[in-house]
Amino acid sequence: MDGNEQGELLPTAAFEDLASLAADCCGVSIGVVLTWEGEKYSVLGAVGMELLSDDFPENLHPFFRASFREETVVQDLRNDPRFEKRPKLGEQERPAFFAGVPFASAAGQQGALCVLDLSPQKPGTKQLSALHRLASQAARLLDLGDSLRSQRLARGIFEEEKSRLFRVIDSAEMGIWELDLESGEFAFNEKWAAILGYSSLELGKLDRKGKEAFIHPQDLSESERALSDYLAGILPRYECELRMKHRKGYWVWILERAELKREAEGGAGRWLFGTLTDNSEQVVAYEQIYLREKKFKILLENSEDAIAILNREGRPHFETESVSRILGLETTPRSAEPIRRLVHPADLEEFDEWFRQALDNPGKALGGNVSRLRHADGSWRHVSGTMTNFFGNPIINGLVYNFKDVSRQVLAEERRRSLENRYRKLAQEGADLVCVIDEEGTFHYLSTNFRHYLGFSEDELEGKNAFGFVHPDDLPWVLEDFAKIKELRQIHGLPYRFKHQEDGWRWVKSVVTNLLDDPDIHGIVINSIDVTAVIDAKKELEQSNERFRLALKAGSESIYDYHPETERTFVSETFEEDFGISLGSMEENFQLIRDRIHPDDLGQAVREFREALENPEVSTWTRQYRLLKGDGTYAHIRDRSIKQTDKSGKPVRVVGALMDTTQIDFFEKLHDIEKEFIESSLVSNTDEKALYRRYLLQLESLIPGMKASILKIEDRKLKNYVSPSLDPGWIRAIEHLDVGPNQGSCGTAAYYGERVLVTDVYEDPRWENYTELARDYGIGACWSFPIFNVEGKVVATIANYYSTPREVGEKEVKTLERAQRLISLLMAQFDYLEKIRLSNERYELVNKSTNEAIFDWDVQKDRFYWGESFTRVFGHDHQVAEFTLETWTNLMHPSDNQEKAGEWEEFIADPQADRWQNQFRFRRKDGSYAFVEESAFIIRDEAGKALRMIGVLRDRTELKRMELLLANASKLSRVGGWEVDVLNDRLLWSPITCEIHEVPIGFTASTAAGIDFYREDFRESVAAMVASTMERGDKFDFEAPIITANGEERWVRAIGEPEFVDDRCVRIFGSIQDIQERKLMEDRLKGVSDSLPGLIFQYILNADGTDEFRYVSRGSIKLLGLSPEECMADSELVWSRLAKGGDLEEVRKSLDESASSLSFWNWEWKVLSPEGKIRWREGRGTPSKRADGSVVWDGLIVDVTHRRNLENLLDQSTKMAKIGSWELDLTLEPIQLNWSSTTRSILGVERLGGMRLEKVYQIFVGQSEEIARQAMEGLIEKGRGFDVELELDGAGGKRRWIRCIGQAVHVKGKTLSAFGSLQDIHERKLSELNLKRLLLERNTILESIGDGFFAVDSNFTVTYWNKQAEKLMKVPRAEILGKNVWDVFETGGLDRFRRKFEQALASGKAVNFEDYLAEFKVWFSVSAFPSDSGLTVFFKDVTQNKNAQEEIRNSNDRFERVSEATNDAIWDAQLSEGKLYWGRGFKSLFGYDLDVFTPDYKFYVDRIHPQDRKRVVGSQERAKANPQVRHWNEEYRFQRADDTYAYVMDRAIFTRNSWGKATRIIGAMADITERREFEESLKKLNVKLKRQAKELAISNSGLEQFAYVASHDLQEPLRMVSSFLSLLDRKYREHLDDKAQQYIHFAVDGAIRMKQIILDLLEYSRVGKGEKELETIHLEDLIFEVSQLQAQLIEEKNATIRFEGIPTLTSFKAPLLQVFQNLIGNALKYSREEEPPLILVSCEEERYQWLLAVKDNGIGVKEEYFDKIFIIFQRLHSKEEYTGTGLGLAIVKKIIDSLGGKIWVESVYSQGTSFYFTIPKPGKKGGEG
């Protein structure tokens, strides 16, 4: 809302008053209230603007804009550097001071309250606070304006809705009526009367009976029944189609709809509201369609084709009479039987597949199916059918099965095929390729299976030379073999390559037979078989073996293959390379590896291996052990194994991978050391030097033989800092040596600022001056790295020393590099912390003053002390001597004083009350009253008597004025306020809010009680919104009904937002508005619009081309599948639904035409419903044009699908049946024949319209013309129908046969109409006339084929047996012909053959299978083809192929097992074939599922990180191109399946041909992400270290300050208290009674205990500081020292202290003494009275630490307090029972933590306690290695 609009709703004076208040509050002359929108601001109110020059807005623009975002204060604009680019301010009549604070309305309107002055100002906190409060009032004024605007807008919407509804009703051409069901009163509009031919004046006043008098008597009872069902709740609304009497005497078809009006309370009323629509045109259309349907039915019944409509189960729900004619079945009784039950079993599978395809292809006609259907007499009829899916058509809703009887054609074709069947099956269906060539090689005959095997048809090869298709490399020796055929009758050739039309080359093997002398053949017969699979299998086997060998060599692991029964073990050759161990035979390898396992690991490794072998649940397992290498060192091995078992579960094979993890283990240990180093540096009060010492000792333990040292650089000289293991003499010798060139390793490294690696100090010139010194102290090599501070200056060096010369090792250098970075970082951090500590010592706190009137009231003396702000705020002298409670009372307004008097007296008298809040009017010095808010705290003595009161007075005058202004405005707009005090669960309402709820003013309640005012069905949602506001801070704005205290329902709009303090909601506040009147109007309009049929809408087309739906009724849900809210929110949703129907452009065009001419809009279109069905819609509306150029339609959309479907039924049905229709126009002379588009297509004519009947006769040829003429004349003259077959001249002169049927309507000797159908029967006619020429048997060719072949009859008697069958089955033809095949072969090995052959005969379908005959040791591939006479069988020997496949499977299996066992991802790129193979490692390492996709080289390259891709691909290409390169490796990032990247090391081996060209690459990827990510983790730890270092500095500073206070300031007053009390006791002891002496004792005792607490706290803060060097500690001496300190208590309690275990350990003595002092002291203190204390101290040595314990027989500790006792100040007993401060065990825990150990307690209550703690050995972490 801009300023002008706000001014219309709220008086400008309100905002001017705000501006004036703001100016007065800040003591300036100018105030202004602004709002901001876009790049413009508007002034809502201002004062003092006349003081400014005209150009001030431009200069102040950035200040105003800044204040819209945040509080902006500029004390002097002339000197503020932020605005240097603006024109200089401060000149005459230009402001110098500016302050602005932002505000925002609930609707998001931004604004600012600003004050200005011509002179510089410095506003106080109170003034800025007042500005913020006034700004919040401005926001509330904006909210009030928004509320008033909403009301005005609601009234406008109501009027517009009312007007729109009337326009819709006019556009819909509907009558509107209302009926009182109780009185019978009937009301109607003008349109209702017009539909019946009357005006409302002519009809006059009607009642219910008068209205019913117009209804047709036959329809009245139906109308009453429909109304009764609706009123009883059976129907959702009253709806009835009936006839009503028109004024002119005829009956008008009417559609009536109605619903009951709803009362305001939501119940049904007595008034029935309804509509009346003239439906006559639609009823007439239905009648016309009925006649057309009847006519169409006659055509279908006389058609040659049968039509059935099937559901999804294949059950017919419609059949034409032709179905009965073709199948002899009655249609009605069969309606529930699926059509597939009539299909012949042999055709059923194909029929079902055809049926399924029809279901999957909506709208597509699928023809070409010929099936046998059972006739009623039991015979089978061949039918040719077409099936079309019309499930999307609401009328048909099924599969249309259109079929005709083709039995005669099929039987004729079968007779033809039966003659050639034997040869076709024998010669053409075999696996052999059979051809006949001449002596030159020219093809003269080819079998049909050439296309199947080689892609060429017979026509493409016949007449061409066969040798032209042989591979050039094979042609010479093929020709050489072929030349021998003249001398030899038959040649068995070697495999050669023959061209394939699509797939390149295929390998074939041929048998060539010379039959040139045969009179039938006269050529050379070649029988060939495709052996590509065998050749490829051999090749694949070779590649697989090669892949396996190279993968083993490329991988980072050594692979083994172990056979448990024989213990034969294959080990890859990489084992010798990786471990330097010479392998033996496969029988020796297992024992060889076993003997080299470390003795400590051997037992467990063998046990794990055996357990895994014996456990059937385990298939993979991993072991770790050490293996002795060839050089005598041990390698750490990770052994991952995969077990393979047989069917019984017995292990038969174990494949595994051995990976050397020595280096990985080394860097993991280094990582742990560095992690501990960093974490220790973060511990409070860490000793820097001790930290470095422990770190260097750990590094020395990690690298045997290495000694580490850190030297600092001071004044360009070396100074020892930490050298834990170097000889002290060496340290003294190098102390203070100069930094410079040739100054040893450290001096040189510090001088040049770079690392110096000296491998032999006796040969290196940099050690020339120190060789003798090095020899004296046994130093042979020294590597040094400089350490830099944050400025890049060398401040120290770290060095590694070795006793003998030593070459640089990768591990050592990397360790030293990492140590250099870590120490550089930590030294910089410790230096930074030291600077912070020094800075914090100089830091002092600064107290701030306030502008609120602060007072301090001495209640006993009744005197007030005021701050200076008392004078500034109220004008009174703050230093007045006598300001009493009476003075205060006199300054209060008399009425307020009287009102608050009682409450004040109760507060003063209540000993528990401490806080006082009050609001009243307070008189200023000038006599005016200020509204003030008082907030105070009272101090009382032990008896509750008031002693002192401290508080503030806040001036709330201006806020109060604004509240009154808002209250008046709220009353006018019926907007009330409310607030929820969340902490106290208290709901506060303004008077208007109370009035809305009809409760007394001042009413309060809980939040839940307030929600209960909402109507029951809304309470849950309201409660959820309030809960969301409290939890997440969400604002809310909703409308809902409430039930007032008086039981009235009222609609309200509620707005609320929360206030949070410290992330906790403390209050929710907002407004509530009475919207009952608007809601009633909306509901009334909605009821009217929802009662109308269809969808009512208001559509706006804007001048700029955009559009919107301003209103949409609930009918949108049914017609569009969208809610009204969705339609109105986005018009594109509506258009997208229309677009699915395909008519969107036409609809938009019709609207544009209506808009341009402002003519009535009426259009029909189709849509796609949410259920996927086509529906038709009709829209109507009257447009009107607005002043802004937009056009508005108020209209109606209705569903007209039913009417459109009926109109389209005839056309769709004729197309479905493929039958054309025709009709004679008997009204014309000469008579004309009109036809449908299908008929025109069949006749082959171009004319769209009809043709003279005489000319139609001329289309037919021969006798057909006369037949057609006689049939038509009989139809016209006598009404005699006909059904004839005619031949005609079609398009392009082609003759076609048709079937023509005619029918007539003949009444009283006259033909009124004549019509009929036309059907194309040309194919059926031709199939009856044509038969194929029979082919002769070619037994000679059958005998020469390479397959075994035999034929049997249905009883399995052998009728044919070829030579190859004799050879393969070893049975001569003479011994088997005429015999049953199963009698000849009685062996059980042919059981599967028999089952398959019987299956083929029973099903009538061919079978193909492979089987192994053990008797012959041969694999056979068998194909059996059934026929009417029996079975034809082809079989061939495929043993060689099977063996090759098994070899490939074994090889691939071995490779897969290796891939699974290894941790590498194996890959194989076959460059010559462009193939890429990935092993299983790609799934385990990178997540790629190789069962889902096949990778290629592009996929691999795309997975390489973009930043690495060019480098890696280039490197690989260069290696591939270089014939000398055999090995390749790279490190790069590789993308995983989840899109993250892994760092990999990729190693590969190239295979090259004899010319050096790379033909194959075998590679292995290892995931090295963890190693590469360590650097990143270190950086993150460094960042964390910096952040925690800052926090630590602050914490240390506070602790240091506390320590100072505790050791000095806090103890001093305690000493004074205890000293003076002691003096008082000594001096006046005789004059004091026992009670007084007891009080003195209590006070002195308290002071002593307080001092002890301070000392303990001081001790606690010092834990971890000041430890000296590590030393050997004798525990018995330490415990003796503690016993001496506790001697008196030990003697008093007769206690015994014993020690056992390890006597010495290395640590820091002072903190350990403190630990034992506290633990033994506690054991003595908490002993049982009845038993002397027995304390046992023990020490055990573990691998990395010492475990110590202090056990006693005291009172014990309950288990629930085990953790609590180590917390500072936590005590389990009162001070009367046991003395103490609760700090002892907290100190102990802190000491143990600082030493890197752990402490815990074990105890049985009343029986004793044991404290356990650990001390790490130097260089070790607590509890770890």
Automatic annotation (TrEMBL):
SUPFAM superfamilies: ATPase domain of HSP90 chaperone/DNA topoisomerase II/histidine kinase, GAF domain-like, Homodimeric domain of signal transducing histidine kinase, PYP-like sensor domain (PAS domain). Keywords: Kinase, Phosphoprotein, Transferase. Its EC number is 2.7.13.3. It catalyses: ATP + protein L-histidine = ADP + protein N-phospho-L-histidine. Pfam families: GAF_2, HATPase_c, HisKA, PAS_3, PAS_4, PAS_9. The keyword Phosphoprotein applies. Residues 1605-1819 form the Histidine kinase domain. InterPro entries: GAF (IPR003018), GAF-like_dom_sf (IPR029016), HATPase_C_sf (IPR036890), HATPase_dom (IPR003594), His_kinase_dom (IPR005467), HisK_dim/P_dom (IPR003661), HisK_dim/P_sf (IPR036097), PAC (IPR001610). Residues 916-968, 1036-1087, 1161-1212, 1528-1580 form the PAC domain. Residues 161-234, 292-362, 419-474, 544-616, 1341-1404 form the PAS domain. Transmembrane segments: none annotated. NCBIfam families: sensory_box. PANTHER family: PAC DOMAIN-CONTAINING PROTEIN, PHYTOCHROME-LIKE PROTEIN CPH1. This is histidine kinase.
